[in-house]
Specification:
It holds the Pfam family SNF. It is a multi-pass membrane protein. The chain has about 725 residues and is mostly helical. The chain is built from 30 helices and 5 strands. The radius of gyration is 31 Å and the shape is globular. The chain starts with a strand and ends with a strand.
Amino acid sequence: MAATKIIDAPRNGHEMAPLNTRARGDGTHGVTIVLTAPQRNSVQSVDIPGEPDRAAWSGKMQFFLSIIGYSVGLGNIWRFPYLCQQNGGGAFLIPFMIMLVLEGIPLFLIELGMGQRMRLGALGVWNTIHPWLGGIGISSCIVTLFVALYYNVIITWVFYYLFNSFRYPLPWSTCPTNGTGFELEECAKSSETTYFWYRTTLDAAPSMDEPGGLKWWIVLCLLLSWTIVFFIVMKGIQSSGKVVYFTSLFPYIVLTIFFIRGITLRGAGAGLMHMYTPKVEKLLEPTVWLDAATQVFYSFGLAFGSLIAFGSYNTPKNNCVRDVLLVSVCNAVTAIYASVVIFAILGFKATVNVDRCVASNTDILVKNALLPFKNASSEDYDSVMQKINGTEFEALHLSECSLSKELDNAAEGTGLAFIVFTQAIVELPGAPFWAVLFFTMLLSLGLGSQIGILEGMLCTLFDIDIIKRVKKQHVTGVVCLFCFIVGFIFCTGAGEYWLKMFDSFAGTIGLVVVALMEMIAVIFIYGHERFTEDIYQMTGYRPGVYWQMTWRYIGPVIMVCILVSSIVFMVIRNPTYGAWNAEKGIVEQKDYPNWVMGIALAMILAGVLPMPIVFLMRSFQCLKVDLDIHQGSIRRNETTASTKEMIDNDDDQDDDEDDENDFSGPALGGHVKTQSDFSDEDEEDKPMTMRMMMMRSTTINAATPLKKLGGNHLNVPTSRKQNYKKDAYDV
């Protein structure tokens, strides 16, 4: 027996050495036997087409803040408090938390985990799972484009208010006057903040059929917002990763400042009691649970492709399960925390309005000798008001002064931010300071979400081979310029009406369908066993019963319920929009014109149809499918070393013929280019990559000594795991 030789070789799974027929120096022939330890491999442990030089996060904190900045957005400030108020107060937290656990967290892990596993954008991920699913990535990209178009318009309005916040007094604190010194009728019939929003800021048109011309001040602010967004995302996470430290942390600082100031204001307790007093009977209404599920879905930013993109920049061994749980808790806590701040200040505003109402009624009662003097006690005032009947109440032109009624008037969305809350800011001492803080916070929240939205869309675009050849700065510039030009429709007098139409149709049904297809693709096509094993290989944690039940049954059922209810409500309820009536000083509900509904239907179809179109075209071979990248890699998952060489040779012969004339990218089922397919030009523009982040130790391929001994080389893919010793015995 010859002496034992110790070979330091990488852990390659199963290896088999052929008989060594080369004669030894002593005239004998020998057999080389390689003994390897058993390996626990994932079913999908083979290399999946990705980018070896893909950009990577510079640190864990940068990734976490980017996810927080994307997930925690404007909806946490102006949507969640409104839903709590309308759907049972504190009782709404029950369906919200249930939907968070059953719907939000499971789908969140699917997107983040698949991005980290595949290290590709949304288009590449679904193409890799199966070429027929490529339409999911296209649909996601189209819907994300629609949302990015109008989301940046909100940032535009925030810029306009931020610039006006440096004026003293605030321009929305008083009504403008005409030449005779009287307040303008439009402002007198509404309010100071309402007039500033609809007339000064938007110069609102009476309807969508009469949009008026472009408002130059809005166009300039829109140009500024898209310019800032371009410089933030032009180099991907290399540039945006530095900005998230501000956009993610600053809102919490501002919320804390407002919280400390808010709880010290008169009426703050009344506002909080009004909001969080549980109305348990509301839980019996199905719409409450639907609102909770919808809020969870949109607050996480699911189905945009952004979470897949963020996950693809992680290292393969990142604990994505822990990240999902931390972000989910942070998102929910932020929504509740913001609600406390908002309603504490709205309680103060309501108290101030009630005091003014009481003072006005007192003056009327004194003039009519129903009260002896203006400084009468509240008990005297209440006793007199109780004695007045309905006829006398109207004859004296008295007003009903109710704190709960004032708090019930709280609005949502732009109405809360630009009308209701600005009125509360006016009542605070040092109002310009608080206005600057508030709108800077909204700007940070908006930019953080916009960065994530664009990053998801651009990452998807760069999965297309022909676009990958262009510098990211150039592609980003073209996308931002296109969005700016299309955004002119939001700069007219009907701009707010268009934004509400986009928000109601462009990002609803399309996103829900994409999310449902994502769950079906991963759990039932890719396989929940494979995905579970992938999570285990990446994190060391094997998802248990909770994850399996939510992925396979509960999650899809909830998504179907959201989809069906959204379609039913859209059909039953005639879609309307709030148009500003300048003569009456109120917002009136109007039906959308037929041509606008046609545009809305086209946007819905544009976000949904790519999935069946790609499926049908590829199933009927209308689009070329690169077997080596997609089906070939999946087919090799369960091959052995003895059969793999034959499959490789067969594939190589087919691929040599096909790839010569194959210019299609992943969007068309083509080859996903790796770094080796490109030249090393523009090296200075490349961000930190995974290859730079990980030290790749130099290993000796186990096949090398076999080749030297005259054997055939088995092309078994090598993994980048820690080396160990192998014992090779020459017999």
